[in-house]
Amino acid sequence: MTVHPPSEEALAQAFKALADEVRLRILAFLRNPEPSCCRLPGEVCACDLEAYLHLSQPTVSHHMARLVQAGLVRAEKRGRHVFYRLNPESVLALAQYLKDLALKEEP
């Protein structure tokens, strides 16, 4: 898988999205979701996130919108439900950026 470097704007948006403990919990849950009523392989229904986080639907929607806008999560609406899954390419691009930053050689 080729990882393309994100723009500075995309990096800033992603790091802002990650600067919230609820969103970090969401990403961890999406990586390894617990069995639930609507979960499909590789994705999670919004109602499952509400139950897992013990938060209201509007609050979960707010956090998910931030993660989707940052490109860290993909969303797909099917009927009344929205299903979410991690966007591994974006997560890997962030990890690669940080790795390159940390390992940059001094002139």
TrEMBL record:
Keywords: DNA-binding, Transcription, Transcription regulation
Listed InterPro entries: ArsR-like_HTH, ArsR_HTH, HTH_ArsR_DNA-bd_dom, HTH_MetalResp_TranReg, WH-like_DNA-bd_sf, WH_DNA-bd_sf
Pfam families, per database record: HTH_5
Record-annotated membrane-spanning stretches: none
Domain HTH arsR-type as annotated: residue spans: 3-106
Keyword RNA-binding carried by entry: no
Name this protein carries in UniProt: Metalloregulator ArsR/SmtB family transcription factor
Organism: Thermus antranikianii
